[in-house]
Amino acid sequence: MEKLKPGKTNAEDRMNMVRYWAAYVRAHPDKVWSRQQAMLINAQLKSARKDAQAAKAYLKRKGLAI
To answer: With 1 labelled, which of 21, 28, 42, 58 sits at a CA distance of 20 to 30 A?
Structure first.
């Protein structure tokens, strides 16, 4: 599998990432990459929940709770 190449522009970077990921998905079994995707998504959800709780606590301390 080819290494990820940096692009000259932001759009080129995004397209390179799409191509890289598509090649990765084709080269690895479903169980491998879907487990990795699940770990990433779960980590993002956990972080978002933690951020939301911190924001609510901050607003409550400031007396601005909704």
So the answer is: 42
The predicted-structure confidence for 21-44, as pLDDT tens digits, reads as follows 899 889 999 999 889 899 999 999
In 1-66, DSSP assigns E strands to: none
For the chain, report the end-to-end CA distance as a whole number of angstroms. Answer: 51
User: Per the structure, how many domains does the chain have?
Assistant: 1
- 29 within domain boundaries: yes
Task: Give pTM, 2 decimals.
Answer: 0.57
**Residue 7, phi-psi category: left (phi > 0), alpha (psi -120 to 50), beta (remainder):** beta
